[in-house]
Amino acid sequence: MKINSNYLKLENNYLFSTITKKVEDYKSKYPKKEIINLGIGDVTQPLPTAVINALHKAVSEMSSKHTFRGYGPEHGYNFLKTAIRTYYEKRGVFLEENEIFISEGANSDLGNILDIFSNDNTVLIPDPVYPVYMDTNIMAGRKIIFMCATEENNFLPMPDKNIKADIIFICSPNNPTGAVYNKDQLKEWVDYALSCNAVIIFDGAYEAYIQDRKLPRSIYEIEDAKKCAIEICSLSKNAGFTGTRCGYTIVPNELRFEGVHLNMLWLRRQTTKFNGVAYIIQRAAEAAFTEEGQAEISKFINYYMDNAKIICNTLQNMNIWFTGGENSPYIWLKCPKGMTSWEFFDFLLERANTVGSPGSGFGKNGEGFFRLTSFGDRKNVEIAMKKISSILI
Amino acid sequence: MKINSNYLKLENNYLFSTITKKVEDYKSKYPKKEIINLGIGDVTQPLPTAVINALHKAVSEMSSKHTFRGYGPEHGYNFLKTAIRTYYEKRGVFLEENEIFISEGANSDLGNILDIFSNDNTVLIPDPVYPVYMDTNIMAGRKIIFMCATEENNFLPMPDKNIKADIIFICSPNNPTGAVYNKDQLKEWVDYALSCNAVIIFDGAYEAYIQDRKLPRSIYEIEDAKKCAIEICSLSKNAGFTGTRCGYTIVPNELRFEGVHLNMLWLRRQTTKFNGVAYIIQRAAEAAFTEEGQAEISKFINYYMDNAKIICNTLQNMNIWFTGGENSPYIWLKCPKGMTSWEFFDFLLERANTVGSPGSGFGKNGEGFFRLTSFGDRKNVEIAMKKISSILI
Q: Testing the interface with B: which of A77, A132, A199, A245 to mutate, by most B Cβ within 10 A?
């Protein structure tokens, strides 16, 4: 039996496991120190009450033979698809129910969607970027081209007509940089994809953090995007589903390559390799899209965005260059005093007992940069920012 | 962009969707007829009380900031792994916690596990068989060899030393035939796999239905199996999780190919393409393995096995050849009067208003055979069996 030798080409140290190890080592050395984690992008607020109530109700249904649910549709229940359709309609995007596929999270679908594409395609990926785009394509042996995101382009790389790509990953608001494309910029990407017959995988996991109403929250707000783009979204960062697991993927009916509808291929993939999301979780997700659910989610997002403001203000006061934080839970800063990303990581851990994510872990252009997230507890964010201010002044 | 053209080699009609369509057509023609479904392998009993209680408790935890859970370990929480370890220990199988990976169901893992193997491998699959083994390998473009399961070998094909395979799928108790390998037979498979350096993917989704204590419920009850086998299990058919989604995959530390530990490859796959199972679902699964949970599960299984007895007795009285039903929820019968599988399907639907699964949908050796499942409601099983008796005598 031959293993998939592409796996051997993966780098050994996964960013977050390295961070965890470093923090654990520090903790065992200084067990009394309290560490504040502004590193991993995990939420800290509980599930909205509307979601909790829907979960209890659905669990009770599962306890009676008459309301018990066994296998559901692999692509998701219509009640949830309808809720998502309505959510999109509010910003002028009209979807068919069969274009929406309920998933157990954006992370899985970002990897799994690649199943329906040939391994011969060339992939265009921003650098720095969420490591999953790169690793999943290395696993399949695809050729990868990186587009440089730098301080000069505000970490928003634009298409280069000299480069020919087949699959383009775009994440906006971006993880890790927090940078957000405007409509004109996304239109350039759509035009580029159409011109070279490429498909865009649009990761919209952070769309709910966009405060500026002029910025696009879905790629389908851009003309012709349905002819070239798949959109992958999640309930993790808005409704707090990081530990509850639900997302959705949109594959428009208009998307055709080599005369084949990608929607049909994805449907086939999902009905073969997936058995759908738990009924109780889909009811929870449905509740997140209700008026009550959305009102609670707004509160959580405001809470996190107020954290972001505290971080941004601190950085501004210290004259540290950064992007993000305005329409995104991520703040991407230039390491002060010419430190490398890991040097700044160690510096913050040891001197401010604060954990962030080294930018170099997201790609070579991330070197010298650093990601802070606004998902922490308010008090912790304030303490961390005070400490950072005091050690850097 | 080039699509994965292997998808175009898949057959268009998925068995269960064809069944659904035929049933819907019949219903729209005769709206007053009540149809009894002994076709799809879905459970009908509610979740055990222990599971329901654990779910409510875990949901409540998610409502408070202090007990809320965000991202969990991608490979699962230790509390559930410990429960599974203990479950295996009772039958003398000792596992390490890192060998157990919690999944959102056996179906996904049966497809996803193939990620870590080269597409150049040759796959050995029983015919007839659960269609997922075949379809997922067609999607990856692997060469498939079928091993014939027939009336002559009681639908339990044994290794053929003239055939060289790299990946071997074994399902015992088998879906769709209900046939179960004994220890000597599984030992032959383990020896064969070791002799040709192959890996066995052992699908144990129905292990809880084994009544005969001499029959192996895990492949690891066989000497040296840890050197060649991955085991994939599910809570769907024992704890009623078909709509709640939880399973587990065991990748022993001893499994090495080309000097690489498969456990490490699978860990890398899961930490990259998966974000773990919902916390509340893992608590539900943990409850299923408690003494209280297991006692309730036994009751459900006894209920289904009593259904199986009713079906078996009816078939015996009519002198219809069948296998399964004794240690499995599936009864695999030879269609009477020389009917083909689909002829018998139509005959049962029209004359007894009962739905089963045509054996030919599971492979060419399934032609002329038919699958009935014991997951139905008792009263429905009794009505269906009476009707079948009356139309066949």
A: A245
